[in-house]
Amino acid sequence: MKLKVITVIVNYNKPYDVIHGVKKVYQGSILPEKILVIDNASTDNSIEILENHLSGKIDLIKNSENKGGSGGFSTGIKIAMNDNPDYIWLMDDDAYPHQEYLEYALKTFSQFPKAGIVGAQLLDINNPEIIVELGANINWNDVSTTPIKRREKKLTKNIIVMVDYVPACCMIISKKIISQIGLFEKKFFIHWDDMEYGYRANQNNFQVVVNSQAIAYHKQFDKPALPLVRYYDIRNSYFFYLKKANNLGMKIHIFWQILYKFIQSPFIANPFDFIIYKNAVLDMFQNKMGKLVETPSWEIQIANFDCIVLSHHLALHEKLFLAKKITMLDKDKLKLIILFDTKTELEELKNYCSICLTNSIWNYIKIMTLGFKQNILLLSPDYYTALDFLPLTKAHYDGNFLLKKPVNIRVLWDFIKYYIRKQSNSKD
């Protein structure tokens, strides 16, 4: 008897990745019954692109708001269950399967009757000979996780691994497990929803299995995360550990780990971690879960200043985006100064800035002089640069809101190390 599988892909502003993923699904040795694409209220023209390229190949569901990965997958699972499938195959918009992934995943379910979730040997999209991970295990002692085989060479032999969880970017869940433990935890919005689901599965006597022959592709997880992603990681992970700890002693241990990392955070290499960590932990303790409500918004924050300076270290597309937003603000005499490196940049930016300045020490002095007369905000990237030593209010724009650049005893040392490395590389 043919098993009924329904694929659920959640999209947020990555329509062409979804098109590529759907194409790979249709190239599989076994095909799903149907593919549901849940659009999470994308802010680009995802809907139009998906309808034009995948008409007749997918069922497109349009969420009225961005519900994150947990809410998006839960929406898809609910709809898929109306067709009474045997299995539901979850995929991120930026992941895609090997042509035999589904075949080997279904064989794994038949081989292990207690399996509720089957993951993938997840390989690096940019280097398919390197493993992203084969699921991971949860470490209660140091409040962390241990990814299996991360950054090791691709496994060519058939290996079966039992784990605490597998990433939702490519995993298959059985109808039986959905009926027993329900949907993803919507409180997480993004990140740790798949970890919590895998843990819940294990606690209900289901196995979470990875078959190395079931292969899928995704980018590496261990690259530096954006501040907003770091926020969700910290908040959701501690919420998980405190909620799932099964005795008072373990809860006290986890609380101590949270406190220790909070005390340590001002002294670590990334000076933003203290702000992110503080906000994430406070929100977790106050049960402010789900999607982060951005108050005050970055537009309101910017409107408190007389002059905005965009660092030359920002990429051109970042300068253009910020410049367009700032010029739309209804504030009289808001001055916008943009530092540029090339004539090409100047041509792109000159219609938006009050003053366009080349990147030079003399223009730094000019900006600093203005700072004595006006309330200036300097916007620069998330790492520290020479501009950040000007006596101005400084912030980093992360794509959602502004993070004030904190004073940190590691900043000057990091800056010195950067120039030492730069000098060393130039000599080589």
UniProtKB/TrEMBL annotation:
UniProt EC number: 2.4.1.288
SUPFAM superfamilies: Nucleotide-diphospho-sugar transferases (SSF53448)
Record-annotated Glycosyltransferase 2-like domain positions: 8-144
UniProt keyword Glycosyltransferase, yes or no: yes
Gene Ontology molecular function, alphabetical: glycosyltransferase activity
Gene3D superfamilies: 3.90.550.60
EC supergroup of this enzyme: transferase
Source superkingdom: Bacteria
UniProt keyword terms in alphabetical order: Glycosyltransferase, Transferase
InterPro entries assigned: Glyco_trans_2-like, Nucleotide-diphossugar_trans
Family: Belongs to the glycosyltransferase 2 family.
Name recorded for this polypeptide: Galactofuranosyl transferase GlfT2
Source organism (scientific name): Candidatus Venteria ishoeyi
Designated gene of the protein: glfT2
